[in-house]
Amino acid sequence: MTVNARSSSSGWRSLDRLPLLIGLLVLVAGVVALLIVYFGNTANESSANPTGPAVKYTAPPKQIAFPKEAWKVANQFFFTAVARKNMDQSWKISDANLRGGLTYKQWQTGTITVPFFPVSHVVKFNWKNTNYAYPREAMVNVVLIAKPSAGQKPLTAQITLKKFGQGAKARWLVDHFQPLGGPPVPSPK
After folding, report:
1. Per residue in 9-36, is it b (16+ CB within 10 Å) or e — as a string?
2. Angle, CA of 48, 52 and 55, to the nearest 5°
3. Is 82 exposed, middle or buried (0-12, 13-18, 19+ CB in 10 A)?
4. What's the distance, Cα to Cα, between the start and end of the chain in Å?
5. CB atoms within 10 A of CB 114
6. Contact 173/90 with Cβ under 8 angstroms?
7. Distance (Å, rounded) from C-alpha 38 to C-alpha 23?
8. Which of 26-40, 62-76, 106-120, 147-161 has the lowest mean pLDDT?
9. What's the 3-state SS for 146-179?
10. Is 136 helix (H, G, I), strand (E, B) or coil?
11. Residue 50's beta-bridge partner residues?
């Protein structure tokens, strides 16, 4: 058999067609991809609203004056949980979120999720407009002033309280307490 005879055999001709077949498969795949992109996936029904259901705007609740009952609970919290005194009392005014899974017995040890600070007195302040009060939730920024014997600088912190229960059984509980960074607070003279 000569070289020309071999090239005309069916085995050689199928190899000559291989690039043509690969090109044809790529073209078909491209057309299919184009149709899927253009018409979408037909497995799912097309939606009149592809981004999801319409979201209704609800105005935020109207702010109220900071509730006196909430401020009483906040003050009680500063002089109990934060100062590590009367831990029984601080347990009663802290909600489950603040307790962080601690049991009553664990809370009584004073090793709690709240940072210690030897509180002498407290000053309310509004840092970057973060204070708010709604009928069932309130947040206030405070400056905790240490006892003079402690030799510590004041501590800026934020406390969030939530109202639990209804009617006469409703009561404010501390939900969150966190020291804040920010500009230094001058020490009292």
Report:
1. eeeeeeeeeeeeeeeeeeeeeeeeeeee
2. 115
3. buried
4. 113
5. 25
6. no
7. 22
8. 26-40
9. ECHHHCCCCEEEEEEEEEECCHHHCEEEEEEEEE
10. coil
11. none
- Look-up: residue for tokens 């607070």? 185
Q: Which residue has better confidence, 94 or 183?
A: 94
Could you give the CA distance from residue 162 to residue 35 in angstroms, rounded to a whole number? 55
- Asked if residue 152 lies in contact with residue 82, where contact means CB atoms within 8 angstroms, the answer is no
* pLDDT tens-digit series, residues 98-115: 999 999 999 999 999 899
Phi-psi bin for 165: left (phi > 0), alpha (psi -120 to 50), beta?
Answer: left
List the domains of the chain with CATH numbers: 68-179 (3.10.450.50)
141/124 Cα distance (integer angstroms): 6
Spatial CA neighbour of 142 closest among 157, 120, 129, 121: 157
Instruction: Provide CB contacts within 8 A for 64, sequence distance 6+.
Output: 133, 134, 135
Indicate whether 34 pLDDT > 60. yes
Smallest CA-to-CA distance from 141 within 153, 123, 154 is with: 123
CB 179 within 8 Å of CB 155? yes
CA distance 128 to 142: 13
What count of Cα atoms within 13 Å lies in the side-chain half-sphere of residue 155?
A: 22
For residue 109 the two structure tokens come to 């040890």
